Every structure is written in structure tokens, then in C-alpha cells.
Amino acid sequence: MIRSLLFSFILFTTGVQAVHADATTEALRNTAMNPALSELQRIDAIKKLYSNTLVDGKIPPRTVCVWDLLGRSGPIYAAALDQQARLLDMGVTVNMEAYTNEGVLADDLKAGQCDAALFTGIRARLFNKFTGTIDAIGAIPSSAHMNMLMKVLVNPKNAPRMEEGQFVVMGFAPMGAAYIFVNDKQISTLAKAAGKRVAVMDYDLVQAEMILQLGANPVPTSVVSAGSKFNNRAVDVLPAPLVAYNIMELYRGIGDQGGIVNYPFSQLTLQLIGRKDKFPAEIAQLVREDFYRRFADIEKEVERQTGDIPDNLWIDISAEDKAEYQLMMQQARVALRDRDYYDGDMLTLQRKIRCKFEPSHSECAQPVE
Fold it and tell me: Quick check: 290 and 8 in contact, CB under 8 A?
């Protein structure tokens, strides 16, 4: 997933203090941010912009922290290690750290223990609300919608939206659709979840409030413990990406009576967040473009990791129930936007993309997002 990604941004990262403070600097930056030029031209411009930060002609070490549910034995971390070996052959030192706990990773990124961190888009919202809204419930119906959205986002015109505070979004990758896993097939709609125990992220109080409004009982959990809680019957309902079916062994919690509601409620992402004092805007732009070029390959890897899911586990729902899902999710997005939880500009962009695919939908003539 990040095989050639690390090469792109670590090999040429040189700090954030430019040595040129004249028209030459502006020209070099324009060159570095121009996707119509060759990568070599853009990299050469970046080297000239930040040449004063090389140490003995070499790139200073960088610490890249990678979230992987399986830690050092997981597929994301394995890809990172493979790239680390290639970089070492080139004389570039990379300190790679594996995390199974996103909360700890986020804290270490804030504290400067990590120069960059790769984790879920839901967690990334804490660092950039604009890209953190990509994963908004019901906002992106399919992979095709996600592809179009990411194509728009990697345009250099959107580079300013990638920066917030001390951090810069260096890339986003598809992690697949999230579905509702249940231990009883009778829990096929939101209304039928009333009184049931629903897993919510322990760091996100807004999720708990939403579940309470549905009449269900929120159960705080972490990404690491979510699978075991579902499998041990501590929760009845677990929203999760399909890849979790095998990795978290969710078939144990599904058992003979449960299943997966056949309606994706969100398209999830992995996002790479870097510190601006380690990764300048020009490097971040190159990395974002590199992520997008590998969109199809990343999706194939996610599908491979997902594996086969038995057909009899899918719980089909009616067109009326799907319409109910869409309306409730739209109402939730608007409410969360008004509470400053979701970014309104991102929701508007996502709505415009949905209307590209389905211009006859009522939200296109009477938009509320």
C-alpha cells in the first residue's frame, strides 16, 4: 500500500526553511507544484528550495509511524519495512514504528515523536477537519465516487486545504466500504437497532449521542478491542470495514444467527498526516499525487486482504429501507456539520459528486449540504 510512497516523500524531504526569499523562490515553488511537469523537474526544484537543510549532503532521519491492527506482523507495516530496506541501500535512514493503538499514535504525532503517521481517516479528522470529513456517513456511496473525489482533492489548487495548524495531509487511500455487522439477522434496519448494544469509538462522544438518538445503547470501544467485544457478545452491532471480517475474525460474533447488512454506510480511508516542519507543502503535494496514482492497486490489496465472505451472511434490505438509511444519514451529516464536527465544504463537494452520478436525485435540485 505504501511501497513506493515512502520513497517519494522521504527521499526528497529536506525541511521547511527555504533559502531563497526572492522571485526565484516563487518560480521554484510553482515548478514543484506543477503536475504537468516531470517528477524529476519538480524534485530538482524542491532540492533547490530546501538545500540548506541537508546534513553532510544527506537527508536527515525521519520517523514514520504506521498504524496496523496486527502491528509489526501486519500487511501495512510489512510494506513499509520493504521500502525501508530500499531506502537504506540509498543511504537514507528511516526509523519505522508500528502502532496497534491509534490513540497513542495520534498523541505521539502531536508530541513530535512521529514525523508522519498513517492511520484511519476518522482519526485524521482530529488533525484536518476537511479531509477528516471524507469518511462522513453516507457521503460517498461507492468506490467510483471515492475515485472522483480523490482526483479533485489532489489538484494543487486544493493544497491550502490540506494544511491545518502544525500538520499537513500527505495522502489518502481507500480502505473499502464499512458495513453493519450484527449477531442477529433481525437487526436489519436502524429502527430495529433500538435497545441493542452498538459499538462506538471511545474517543468520539458524538457517535455515542447519535446512537442514543436511535434508541440504542452505545458501547465505547477502541479499534483494537472492537472485534473481541463483538465476538464475545459484549455488543450486538458493529460498524466495520469488510476487511475486518477475517482480520478480526468477526465470523465468530456473527455465528449462526448474524450477518452483514448489505448496504454500505461509509467509504473509509487511511490518511497520512505529516508535521509541516518536517514535510513542506511541495513534498506533500507529490505524495498526495502518488497516493492517487495507486488508487486501483490499493483497492486490489484491500480486496485481497478482505478475502471471501460467504454469500449467506449478507442481509438484503428493501428499497424503502435503503431510502430510510439515506435520509437518516443525510440528516445526521447536516446536524454534525452544524455542530462543527463535519466540514461543510467537504460535504458540499461530496454532494456535487453524488449528483454527477445521479443528477435526478432530489438533493441535487434542493441541496441542503
Answer: yes
- φ, ψ of residue 235 in degrees (nearest 5): -130, 150
Strand partners, 261: 180, 315
| Non-local CB neighbours of 257 within 8 Å, separated by 6+ positions | 183, 184, 185
- Tell me the three cell numbers of residue 338: 452544524
In a shared domain, residues 213 and 249: yes
- Altogether, the residues listed in the chain come to a count of 369
Quick one: how far is CA 296 from the chain centroid?
A: 15
- Shared-domain flag, residues 257 and 148: no
Structure confidence at residue 17 (pLDDT): 45
Q: Retrieve residue 352's grid coordinates.
A: 456535487
Q: Could you give the CA distance from residue 191 to residue 321 in angstroms, rounded to a whole number?
A: 10
Closest CA to 3 of 75, 103, 55, 74: 75
Give the model confidence (pLDDT) of 307-347 as tens digits.
889 999 999 999 888 888 888 889 889 989 999 999 999 99
Strand partners, 94: 62
Q: State the virtual CA torsion across 219, 225, 228, 232 in degrees, nearest 10.
A: -30
Tell me which residue range forms the domain holding 241: 178-267+311-341
Pairing of the two strands 197-201 and 217-221: parallel
CATH number, residue 183 = 3.40.190.10
How far is residue 173's CA from residue 255's CA, in Å, rounded to a whole number? 31
Q: Hunting for cell 480502505 — which residue is that?
A: 175
Is 367 domain-assigned?
Answer: no
User: Which residues are within 8 A (CB) of 32 and not within 5 positions of it... i.e. 6 or more apart?
Assistant: 42, 45, 46, 49, 282, 285, 286
Instruction: Give the C-alpha separation, 158 to 351, whole Å.
Output: 17
Reported as type and span, the H/E element at residue 110 is: helix 102-111
pLDDT digits (tens, 9 = 90+) for 238-251: 999 998 999 899 99
Separation between Cα atoms, residue 232 and residue 255, nearest integer Å? 11
Q: What is the CATH number of the domain that holds 151?
A: 3.40.190
Cell of 111: 508530541
- How large is the average pLDDT for residues 283-289? 88
The whole-model pTM stands at 0.87
Are 195 and 293 contained in the same domain?
Answer: no
